[in-house]
Amino acid sequence: MFDRRLVFHINWGLLTLTAILFLVGVMNLYSASTLRMASGLELDAYFNKQLLWGGVGLCVMTAVVLVDYRHLKSVSWPFFILCLLLLLGVVVAGKTIYGAKRWLDLGFFNLQPTELTKIAVLILGARLMTRMEGRLGWVSLGKILLVGLVPAAFVVKQPDLGSALNILLILGGMILFKGVTSSVFKVLAVVIPVMLPFGWFFLHDYQKQRILTFLDPGNDPLGAGYHIIQSQIAIGSGGFWGKGFLEGTQSQLRFLPEKHTDFAFAVFGEEWGFFGAMVLLILFCSFLYQVYIVTMEAKDDFGSYLAAGVFFYFFWQILINIGMVLGIMPVVGIPLPFISYGGSASVVNFCMIGLVMNVAMRRFVFKKG
Amino acid sequence: MGAFNTPERPQVFSGPPLLLVLVVILFCIFGIRLWYLQIYKHDFYLGRAQENRTRQSTMFSPRGIIRDRTGLLLAENTPAYALALVREDCPDIPGTLDQISRWTGQPRDDLQKAFEIGRKRVKHFDEQVIVPNIPFELVALVEAHRQDWPGLAIAVRPKRSYAYDETLAHVLGYVARANEEELNNDPDLQLGDNVGKQGVELMLERMLRGTKGLEEFEVDASGRVLSSRVVSSPVMGEDLDLSISLSLQEVATKALNDRAGSVVAMDADTGEVLALVSLPSYDPNEFVVGISHAKWKELLDDPLHPLQNRPVQSTYPPGSIFKLAVGALGLESGTVTPAKTVFCSGKYTLGQRDFRCWNKGGHGVVDFKKSLRESCDVYYYQLGEQLGVEAISDFSVKCGFGVRTGIELPHERTGNMPTPEWKFKRFGEKWQRGETLNYSIGQGFTLTTPLQAARFVAALVNGGKILRPTLLLSEEPDVQGELPMSPAVRKLVVDAMVATVEEERGTARILRRPGLRIGGKTGTAQVVKLMDKYEKKKTHEIPYKYRDHAWMVSFGEKDGKRFVVVSMVEHGGHGSSDAGPVAGAVLDALLGVQTEGGQEG
Question: Is B32 in CB contact (< 8 Å) with chain A?
Fold first, then answer.
């Protein structure tokens, strides 16, 4: 099944960038896990766990790379339906942690079907688009949107607005990548901005509060605005060269909330300064550029769409997370790939990279049938 | 060979080029934003981060304590508890103020006002005192409910305590909460601080207060202290050793026997004030804890003015004690000689008007010594007439009358030695010749304070040095000037004072203590020109406010030490019979005379 010649076509650039980003993330997490107490430094467990999850991710990535991506076409529907069933299972028998019902207790570990759903939606979307000729008209668009909206509806109920948004944005990005007919484009260009304010009424109070706070953080500096203000203080106080590794006062003294997850980039910005933050930004952009290259060089449309889906999977998270940390986007619980701590997210990240590498490796393979 | 190279597909906003555009946009937006936050606004955010993690707190410096000359504690510091609020830690300030109001029974509006005033001056993470000086039971109650009221704190502040209540109020004064004006004028003061408001507490504030220290803490987000360092150490206020003798002060207070008046006892050779009594008095402790409005009004409305520090803040005509100065001038200027006599028939006629001697029968032939011993008015009418008003004023000012003493007490009054120019400026009237006669016996416009009188008598007996009276122990004597008279004249005056005590018919015979050298001079200062209807009445038959002030200036010597005692009883009647026993009691204590009470100085 595995052709040895494929090894020569491994996208080393993507692999290297992934490794660097992961290691930067682990290093930053070491700092973010450190608390300075009166008695000295204390280390939380996040740092070790992330390394463990990285190992798991690497295995998953290898597994994903081994199987020719073209086989995914045939399993896309069953996989998608399985995910829907799991989501239904969460609704019926999910485990509630911190007031959110997101997990299925499988005995040995808690499965979060939402993460699997992201992959399933991506693959099914790519498959459906492959069948569609030219730009998307109304009918095709409707079909593809349905693939995102149904699972997103389940996820919103959990509630997990961040993931639902993520699913829809991945699909939305792929739709833009595929292109829509000019009539669809014109209508959407008018309707979406008009509909957006109506979305306000579907938001929870705390979500409305976040948007209001984003518009005016000073309004409630100790409540909802606290995250935004403290995050900008952390970043801004870093200056050009930063305060140095383990020297960030905002993070070490816990003024920065969620510093190992959503606001991990702020820890990095505080300790490594403008210089470090720009290096990290360039790493992310190079990483995205590598995925962009794969969408161009893919052997077939399916591969190209898959890679585009992965591009948007990472792109939106980077945009929303760093945007939030820098105070130019509202606070939404979306982590920064490789930098934020998160077990499931790490595994999915590696899985996604596996998909792209899979496509990249097989760009010269002749069709078998 | 890509999937998008077919000719009908190429488009800018879909396909791979879209991705490239998005990456470039991402890079630009974040690059610019990072530059803005980390370079352009770096200083601002660095300051905010610093502010986040450092807290400062004041290290209070205890105020210097005050002791009497024997080391007895007169003013000390005791810990006092105050209810305070840390705004940063208090999620529900109105609710907390409600609760404070319930606990203390203070009106909610007052607390709100205190809070609003304070919040401008106290940093949001510092303790802001809302209710000072709460009783211990309330401290216990609040401590028991602390966890229900985050942000509420019990602040411990040193509180001034005066051990002898009213006895020393006019010497020590008191401290009380600094007011708006004091806070504005003195950057070292913080809201809730006490400052000296009266007495030596006010005058020696700089010395007593000390300097506050500053401690800086590094804290984490939940306010836990990680490290601290002392930025500046607090410096304790200097302790004060007063020249006052508490026991003498008590003797003098008791001797005044609840009458309004003053007693000053002074070491003639050093200027050290041993007792300084002003009655009625008040309790300085009430001001420290914040005097109630009713009590304050009561003090202000009291017709006897308990807040008035009489020895330095009240001026009176000196009456016959002024004859000491006028007589000295007579001798010094050669206008009279000790042997020169005047015949007193009981009155002196100037133009159409008769000026009476207090002794209506007349003193007969009066020489210098007799003029003082028996306080003959006619002798001084004639002498004054010869000397003239300007000469008397000039001389008495040089003797220290009508000149502030400079003692360490606030709001000292000057007094007045009148001149024709002064009268014309003041009243627009010419000086009358008859006024010079009144002036010669210490009546009329002339005004002095008991302390000025004490300084003058001290100079008479200490060799002519005019010393600044001081309340501080072991200070180098501060010589303000020389008495404007030769030693011979000085001796004649002092001897006359001794004769006034020792010899028969002497007006200060009440001070006579066998075996001790004591001198004195009485004075009776008219409050108003006695109206005819009161003229023949005894003192107790005249309404209080029209009664004369009674003076006694005296000195006593023992074992080479010379003490001056001045007593002054307001509206007391007669110098000898009313002020005399007061000075006598103080002299007894000073000179170690055994009295019935068995007190010893």
Answer: no
B33 domain residue, yes or no: no
Q: A97-101 long-range contacts, Cβ below 8 Å, gap at least 24?
A: A100/A158, A100/A159, A100/A160, A101/A158
Task: Identify all chain B residues contacting A323, using CB atoms and an 8 Å cutoff.
Answer: 29-30
Do residue B234 and residue B377 come from a single domain? no
The CATH number given to whatever domain includes residue B67 is 3.90.1310.10
Q: A233: which chain B residues are within 8 Å (Cβ-Cβ)? A: 45, 48-49, 52
- Complex-level ipTM: 0.91
Q: How many domains does chain B have?
A: 2
Per-residue model confidence (pLDDT) at position B601: 35
- Residues in CB range of B531: below 8 A, 6 or more apart: B546
User: Which of 38-57 (A) contact B at CB < 8 A?
Assistant: 38
Q: Which of A231, A235, A251 to mutate to test the interface with B (most CBs of B within 10 A)?
A: A235
Does A23 lie at the interface with B, CB-CB under 8 angstroms?
A: no
Catalytic residues of B, which ones?
A: 320
CATH of the domain at B513: 3.40.710.10
Going B191 to B195 to B197 to B202, the CA torsion angle's sign is negative
With helix as H, strand as E and coil as C, how does B392-426 read?
A: HHHHHHHCCCCCCCCCCCCCCCCCECCCHHHHHHH
Q: Which residues of chain A have pLDDT under 70?
A: 1-3, 107-108, 217-224, 365-369
> What angle is formed at CA A139 by the lines to CA A138 and CA A145, rounded to 5 degrees?
85
Looking at the partner chain, which of B11, B41, B52 has a beta carbon nearest the beta carbon of A255?
B52
Q: Tell whether B206 and B312 lie within a shared domain.
A: no
| Block mean pLDDT (10 aa), chain B, length 601 | 42 77 94 94 91 82 90 89 84 85 85 82 79 84 84 84 89 88 83 85 90 85 80 88 92 90 93 92 88 87 90 92 93 90 89 86 89 91 91 93 92 92 90 89 91 94 92 87 92 92 89 90 77 58 78 90 92 79 91 57 35
Residues near A358 by beta carbon (within 8 Å), at least 6 away in sequence = A64, A65, A67, A68, A69
Please report whether residue B11 resides in a domain: no
| Residue B270 shares a structural domain with residue B236 | no
Residue B5 lies in a domain: no
Is the same domain home to B228 and B317? no
Domain containing residue B213? 56-241
**Same-domain status, B280 and B221:** no
Sort out which chain A residues have CB atoms less than 8 A from B125's CB and list them: none
> A281 and B20: CB-CB below 8 Å?
no
